[in-house]
UniProtKB/TrEMBL annotation:
Family: Belongs to the ABC transporter superfamily. Ycf16 family.
UniProt feature coiled coil, ranges: none
Keyword Lipid metabolism: no
Record-linked InterPro entries: AAA+_ATPase, ABC_transporter-like_ATP-bd, FeS-cluster_ATPase_SufC, P-loop_NTPase
The protein's name: Fe-S cluster assembly ATP-binding protein
SMART domains: AAA (SM00382)
Organism: Geodermatophilus aquaeductus
Annotated ABC transporter domain residues: 4-253
Domain of life: Bacteria
Length: 261
């Protein structure tokens, strides 16, 4: 059983006089076996939260803690975070010129597990997962993210998640830019991990999204409304239906009034 705990997290971007506080005290707990959705308007700081947990150098942590099973995530290097069992799929994944998907996945699996996966089972696992994600086998020889379409990027992320078997996966806008078929395939990949991995291997999922669309495919156990750098409301999946009907306007208004007071 794993627990990712975010406590009173404050994060700024920019340097010196340009530094701007984006996260203003985020509290969130994700346990293995649970799926959480963070929903909020554009610019509310959702990606900043994902990047901060990932250890992106552009984001400065000015307060609060992030722990995974009691270990200080913020003190870890990016590699150590992956080895500890965190997986982060980014809204804007980077290109890795000259590195094929197949090599990238094997290197990542070796780094995360501390030893190279056995070639025979590995090749089979990769092939099976690619088939399940409706990916062309030739895709394995493409360079990572080079010229990938939106759907290919997201399939590649879920392929990584399926093979690396993290304790907690953070998926930022996994639904953006996907057509309905790609959305279904990607969601089924996440749902396979949720269903297949049980007990000590169970996965915690933090799904960051602007739209409620993906939540029809991946049903969250908890929904957190994120506005102006913090969680302002929480509930079960019925909260997503309310947001779909009413939008974020009421929360944004409240948040502005609180800021003025
Ligand atoms: N690297 C950065 N440099 C400058 N501003 C940033 C950076 N990252 C995020 N921001 C600002 O922080 C705010 C929140 O952005 P973001 O976390 O991407 O929101 P969301 O993912 O909810 O749309 C925005 O005002 C954005 O312009
Ligand atoms: Mg974002």
């Amino acid at each position: 059983m794993s627990v990712l705990e975010i406590r009173d997290l404050h994060v700024t971007v920019g340097e010196g006089d340009d530094a701007k506080e984006i996260l203003k005290g985020v509290d969130l707990t994700v346990r293995s076996g649970e799926t959480h959705a963070i929903m909020g308007p554009n610019g509310s700081g959702k990606s900043t939260l994902a990047y901060s947990i990932a250890g992106h150098p552009k984001y400065t942590i000015t307060g609060g803690t992030v722990t995974l099973d009691g270990e200080d995530v913020l003190a870890m290097t990016v590699d150590e975070r992956a080895r500890a069992g965190l997986f982060l799929a980014m809204q804007y994944p980077v290109e890795v010129p000259g590195v094929s998907v197949s090599n990238f996945l094997r290197t990542a699996a070796t780094a995360v597990k501390g030893e190279a996966p056995k070639l025979r089972t590995w090749v089979k696992d990769v092939r099976e997962e690619m088939t399940a994600l409706e990916m062309d086998p030739a895709f394995a020889e493409r360079n990572v993210n080079e010229g990938f379409s939106g759907g290919e990027k997201k399939r590649h992320e879920i392929l990584q998640m399926r093979l690396l078997k993290p304790k907690v996966a953070i998926l930022d806008e996994t639904d953006s830019g996907l057509d309905v078929d790609a959305l279904r395939v990607v969601s089924e990949g996440v749902n396979r991990s949720r269903a297949e991995l049980t007990g000590d291997d169970a996965i915690g999922v933090l799904l960051i999204t602007h739209y409620t669309r993906i939540l029809r495919y991946i049903q969250p156990d908890f929904v957190h409304v994120f506005v102006n750098g913090r969680v302002v409301d929480e509930g079960g999946k019925e909260l997503a239906d309310k947001l779909e009907a009413e939008g974020y306007a009421a929360y944004v208004k409240d948040s502005k009034e609180t800021a003025k007071a």
